[in-house]
Amino acid sequence: MMDFTQFVEKIKSKYKKDELKIFNAIECFDKLHLSSLGSNDSEGYQVFTPQFIVKQMTELVENDILDFTKNVLEPTSGDGAFTTYIFQKRLETISSNFEIESLKALSTIYSIEMDKELIIKQRSNIFTLISLYLKKQKIEVDKSYFDMVKCIIVSNFMWAMFNSDNSMEGMIKEVAYKMPNAEKKDYISLEFPVWEISENNITMHKEYFEI
Length: 211
Ligand SMILES: C[S@@+](CC[C@H](N)C(=O)[O-])C[C@H]1O[C@@H](n2cnc3c(N)ncnc32)[C@H](O)[C@@H]1O
Description:
Blueprint: H1 5-13, H2 17-25, H3 51-59, H4 62-66, E1 72-74, H5 81-92, H6 98-107, E2 109-113, H7 116-137, H8 143-156, E3 157-162, E4 176-178, E5 191-197, E6 202-208
Parallel strand pairs: 1-2, 2-3
Antiparallel strand pairs: 3-4, 5-6
């Protein structure tokens, strides 16, 4: 079993207060809490994509989605109907070196949601998914693996507002803006985490992307 403690400590030592809060709030549910599965219908006015449609849509681009070297971005991700499905599908393709491969699989999934409650729920849904998968497959990992997973979730599952401005002027556009600032029309461009993951080291730096 790999020990991820030193990587986790290095990453967490750079955390600001809010990142530490996000890390500590990630929990493992007994099962996925997806509104589309009927476990929470408090959102009454919104439509969350049911699993059979998620399945059909992702199958159309399956080869791209299953390739961990390719980035996937869900710009209006709700509680994670698509991100949990894609992560599950990626996990199912791993036949060896599960710890490192699963971290790589997660590290290229990016998620943006402007509703704070939903992104909080989604982070725990992703954590629940990997925890239940390990249990089901009887894969043993060190405790520090779970903290490493949380570090990736903290960075990649972002409370932010996707730039839905369709104006073609200027062409280059920022992908998203940080919340809660964007809600007050204080538009701070969102940086995206880029992970380097190997047995010897795990690091992350941030980059600006444009549409
Ligand atoms: C109808 S729900 C769908 C959620 C998920 N994609 C699904 O299929 O179940 C749309 C979500 O997009 C979010 N949303 C809408 N506009 C957004 C924007 N500009 N940036 C980020 N999130 C946005 C809403 O808060 C809501 O959770």
